[in-house]
Specification:
This protein is α+β, with helices and mostly antiparallel strands. 51% of the residues lie in helices and 18% in strands. The longest helix is centred in the first third of the chain and has 24 residues.
Length: 251
């Protein structure tokens, strides 16, 4: 009986975290109870109870007019604290701003979250035609520039575990492996028109003394004016400055 209680408690925590992950991945719109229950594969009553609990602790908020849910202040505070402790908090924004001023394109920092990449810091370019995404936006690890460079720079055993879990078709896996190997050899990952059509990007790893990269730093631009050779030097230099800041942060 004791074991069963423990399993139920873990399942409840897992589902609550799934709700937060769902709201992060759908950061541009709010989600309703029906949508959340369908995504989790649980009854609406269960989803409602989980949401009510998360709301009571400030991790989600309910829009009284629509009845739909979005991330709450506590979830955003948790993300900010985690980013800061990893050395990727607001203190790195001046470095991103300087990079944007140099390349005149939007620049972001992304980290691995599960089998996806999440943007944790971002500075938009001033151009009218620009990449318009938000902090919290998630991308597939296997097709995004940040995802590929993080995979390329991490230990092979860990990389294989992540890719195996994606259960890709054989042809897609071969293509992904080839792209990751190219990123490893070049020291950067370049993608064109994926995962967003019309947008291309170049990313380098932000690496500290740990085995796996801390994050990826990316310059993204409309494909029609994308010139990775013009961005790479500034991108690599800034990644080094961000890594140095992360290494020197108080422990």
């Amino acid at each position: 009986m004791k074991t069963q209680v423990q399993i139920r408690q873990v399942a409840s925590v897992s589902r609550a975290l799934q709700i937060i992950e769902l709201l992060i991945s759908n950061a541009t719109h709010e989600s309703g109870v029906t949508e959340i229950s369908r995504e989790l594969g649980v009854a609406k009553s269960t989803a409602h109870q989980l949401l009510a609990t998360l709301a009571a602790h400030g991790f989600v908020e309910n829009d009284g007019a629509s009845g739909r849910y979005r991330l709450g202040v506590r979830a955003m505070e948790a993300g900010a604290v985690a980013s800061t402790r990893a050395g990727l908090g607001p203190a790195v924004l001046p470095l991103l701003e300087a990079l944007v001023g140099e390349v005149n394109e939007t620049c972001s920092i992304g980290v691995l979250t599960g089998n996806s990449v999440s943007l944790v810091q971002r500075v938009e370019a001033e151009s009218v035609l620009r990449v318009d995404l938000r902090v919290g936006t998630q991308f597939p690890i296997q097709t995004s520039a940040i995802g590929r460079i993080i995979l390329a720079e991490m230990p092979q055993e860990r990389r294989e575990q992540i890719l195996d879990a994606l259960d890709m078709p054989k042809a897609e896996r071969r293509k992904t492996d080839k792209a990751i190997e190219a990123a490893r050899k070049e020291g950067c990952a370049i993608v064109r028109n994926i995962p967003v059509e019309g947008i291309s990007a170049i990313a380098v790893a932000v690496r500290t003394s740990s085995q796996a990269p801390l994050a990826g730093l990316v310059v993204a631009a409309p494909t029609l004016r994308f010139n990775p050779d013009a961005f790479r030097s500034a991108l690599t230099r800034t990644a080094g400055l961000i890594a140095a800041r992360a290494e020197s942060r108080p422990r």
